[in-house]
Amino acid sequence: MSGRRWLQAHWHERRLAASLWLLVPFSVLFAGLSALRRLAYRCHWLPSFRLPVPVVVVGNLIVGGAGKTPLTLWLAQSLRAAGWHPAIISRGYRAAQRGPLAVTRDAAPEEVGDEPLLLARRSGVPVWIGRDRVAAARALLARHPEVNLLLCDDGLQHYRLQRDVEIAVFDGRGAGNGWRLPAGPLREPLGRVRRAHILVFNGAPDLRVLKTAPELPGFAMTLVPGEFYRLGQPEQHCPAARFAGRKLHAVAGIADPDRFFRTLTQLGLSFTPHPFADHHAYGTGELAFPEGEVILMTEKDGVKCARLNLGEAWVLPVDAHLPPELIDVLLETLNGRKAP
Fold it and tell me: Which of 139, 262, 308, 323 could disulfide-link to 100, CB 3.0 to 4.6 Å?
């Protein structure tokens, strides 16, 4: 197990592991610096900016993904169905381009980031990236004047951008051991969740979160797998049953690779797991398995591996399922703004 995966495994225990006590002074320092940063924005020592359209931020308190990307896709599709014209802005984690930059369906993942590329291919709405999300949003709105609502993917801590609604996402790991980085997974204190407007739980809710913000509306999200499609040939589909008796390799470079492996197991598949770090940049040699053996991967990994010369490889898409009442609550929360 790599040092990073070892650390993350201890983060998500329910109490601080003895081996992490040496990191506590650094967590105290991190907590102090982040509190000072939040104070600077509240006191207007650092500037923040409001956009001419509503902004909905989807984010989480812990490091790593909790299901933000499929939730953002669901929100974009649901808002379109409700008559809005949404668009998506994202930082573009590890993208070579600092932005602002429009993400096209055929963009290179190393230029724009894996998650923005996935969002651009599946959402059907404009997607722009930029480390400065305010600049990215302004550029997007200038190019797309029809857009009347912005979804900010993973922007909970980007206080430079003012927001109308915050949606905080938690998965089954909850708040982990409850400690701040680096002794724990929290970017901000758990009490920060009280400033959100909506909670989404991708898995069993963490009782500590519910007790911290009992007044917030909470919604359960499930990720439902679709049919596999062939890497580089998405028109070819294949049910899980077709892989019975084959030698399978499961590849996952996401925040919680075990989530993908559990899904494959629930589909009745037996495989050799190959976990990688979140946003891992793959090389062909890392996925060079014997001829005749099959690679199964997440959709997020698929956007990065499409240009590699791999053997037989299939991608498993997932869709978020949530109660439609979430959109009703979201629209009611938009500071008196009404749907068109």
Answer: 139
pTM for the whole structure: 0.92
- Angle at alpha carbon of residue 288, lines to 282 and 291, rounded to 5°: 145
Which has the closest alpha carbon to 248: 284, 295, 309? 295
Read off the pLDDT of residues 133-150 as tens digits, 9 standing for 90 and up: 999 999 999 999 999 999
Domain of 54 in residue numbering reads as 42-85+148-222+321-333
Residues 307 and 234 in one domain: yes
Neighbours of 268 (CB within 10 A): 10
Give pLDDT tens digits for 33-52. Answer: 999 999 999 999 999 999 99
Q: Do residues 35 and 171 make contact, with C-beta atoms less than 8 angstroms apart?
A: no
* SS3 (DSSP) at 106: coil
What's the rounded Cα separation, in Å, for the pair 141 and 58? Answer: 19
H or E element, residue 80: helix 68-81
Spell out the residues 6+ positions from residue 61 whose beta carbon is closer than 8 angstroms to its own: 156, 168, 170, 175, 186, 187, 188, 190, 192, 193
Phi-psi region of 16 (alpha: psi -120 to 50; beta: other; left: phi over 0): beta
